């Protein structure tokens, strides 16, 4: 339902130098040929192969060096049979030549060169257009631009590029008990960590968070802060969305023009999730639960894929691996459980160990693992050694501390 209501944003034109990580909104076709001409891959001598068929270490063949072609230069004239031209890496191979002999296989003296090898046809020559021809599709639309793509774009002289816009995300925290992290807390107060988690999670994928602050548990306060976020592509609130006497978020959302599409998801953590759309603008609204783990997990499972769809990302979801449980898991049938696990490779298999305290208030469980095991709704028991799917939440998970070669 969420993705059906999620529309990809329009494109914008930006400098290619700033485009790393953005998603290409137009196909890139080559406007030139690369290399533009046959050119030398080595420092050495351009030759006519037929002259050197009998050349070897024991039978060096001597040719006159008739001119020189520096990188960026041009041959003075066609190379004739019986001649050699001094050539440097990247310089165009002269007409008439059909191979380059490496400098290491030659000896020069007094305007002549002695060649000790018989080159193959086109040896050490990069042919014109071997990288790409005019009109080749170099990068299709929808690709996430990386360093290599930007290099290819530069090689056809593209300095601006059309990419999908990044969604703006207005983030509101709510709750009378909440204070900002730089404020002193008494025993009744709780630091609002969700605003930080959610803003950083947005930035990590290139979305643009803006912070609406903390609203106390009064409808007017929630409403006035939310109104400041109405121009955003997405509104994300946390807390106040459950069924308690002080949970006003849903009612306020409806008041400001949000049509709620659903409330409550059969999952743990994260049951009290609300989703709706501001009817007049199409902005998506997510009322996330307040518990820090619930807010983080519902963002991962519901908000993040929607944001990625908006920015034209081809891959909406986190990677999933198969792992074996090192402990048994039990629960009641009915809700899918997202179990925080730590992962370890043993004998070529991933092993998943549930983090001790799975309470939705224990945010540190999210940094001790890095994996979210998916304990299916209809299952009530998994044994030691059973296989389970594990989402990898840490984007650095597959990075290596070892060199690997
Ligand atoms: P609520 O949904 O308002 O019942 O909140 C559920 C729990 O989440 C409460 O223990 C809140 O203190 C906590 N909580 C709510 N908002 C935040 C937040 N922004 N940061 C950290 N914890 C929060
Ligand atoms: Mg509350």
If you had to describe this structure to a student in words, what would you say it looks like?
- This protein has 405 residues and is of the alpha/beta class.
- Helix content is 15%, strand content 32%.
- The protein has six helices and 28 strands.
- The strands form eight sheets. A six-stranded mixed beta sheet has the order 7-4-6-5-9-8, with no helix packed on it. Strands 16-13-17-21-20-18 form a six-stranded mixed beta sheet, sandwiched between helices.
- The longest helix is centred in the C-terminal third of the chain and has 19 residues, at 292-310.
- It is elongated and about 100 Å long.
- The two termini are 45 Å apart.
- Adenosine monophosphate (AMP) binds at residues 173, 175, 177-178, 190, 192-195, 238-240, 242, 244, 289-292.
């Amino acid at each position: 339902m969420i993705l059906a209501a999620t529309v990809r944003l329009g494109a914008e034109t930006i400098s290619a130098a700033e485009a790393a990580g953005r998603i290409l909104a137009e196909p890139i076709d080559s406007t030139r040929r690369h290399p533009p001409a046959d050119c030398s891959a080595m420092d050495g001598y351009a030759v006519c192969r037929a002259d050197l068929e009998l050349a070897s270490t024991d039978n060096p063949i001597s040719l006159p060096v008739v001119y020189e072609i520096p990188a960026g230069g041009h041959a003075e004239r066609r190379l004739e049979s019986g001649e050699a031209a001094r050539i440097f890496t990247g310089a165009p191979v002269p007409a008439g030549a059909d191979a380059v002999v490496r400098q290491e296989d030659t000896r020069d003296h007094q305007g002549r060169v002695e060649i000790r090898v018989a080159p193959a046809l086109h040896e050490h020559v990069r042919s014109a257009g071997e990288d790409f021809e005019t009109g080749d599709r170099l990068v299709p639309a929808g690709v996430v631009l990386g360093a290599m793509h930007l290099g290819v774009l530069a090689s056809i002289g593209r300095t601006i590029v059309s990419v999908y816009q990044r969604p703006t995300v207005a983030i509101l925290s709510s709750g009378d008990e909440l204070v900002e992290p730089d404020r002193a807390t008494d025993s009744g107060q709780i630091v609002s960590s969700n605003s930080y988690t959610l803003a950083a999670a947005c930035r990590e994928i290139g979305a643009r968070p803006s912070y609406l602050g903390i609203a106390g548990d009064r409808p007017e306060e929630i409403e006035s802060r939310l109104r400041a976020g109405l121009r955003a592509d997405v509104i994300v609130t946390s807390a106040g969305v459950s069924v308690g006497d002080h949970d006003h978020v849903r009612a306020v959302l409806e008041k400001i023009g949000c049509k709620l599409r659903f409330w409550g998801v059969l999952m743990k953590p994260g049951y009290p999730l609300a989703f709706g759309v501001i009817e007049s603008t199409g902005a998506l609204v997510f009322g996330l639960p307040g518990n820090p783990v619930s807010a983080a997990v519902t963002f991962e499972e519901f908000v993040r894929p929607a944001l990625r769809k908006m920015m034209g990302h081809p891959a909406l979801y986190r990677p999933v691996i198969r792992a074996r449980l090192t402990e048994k898991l039990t629960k009641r049938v009915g809700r899918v459980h997202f179990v925080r696990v730590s992962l370890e490779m043993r004998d070529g298999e991933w092993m998943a160990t549930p983090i001790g305290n799975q309470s939705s208030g224990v945010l540190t469980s999210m940094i001790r693992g890095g994996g979210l095991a998916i304990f299916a709704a209809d299952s009530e028991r998994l044994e030691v050694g059973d296989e389970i799917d594990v989402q990898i939440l840490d984007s650095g998970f597959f990075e290596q501390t070892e060199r690997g070669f």
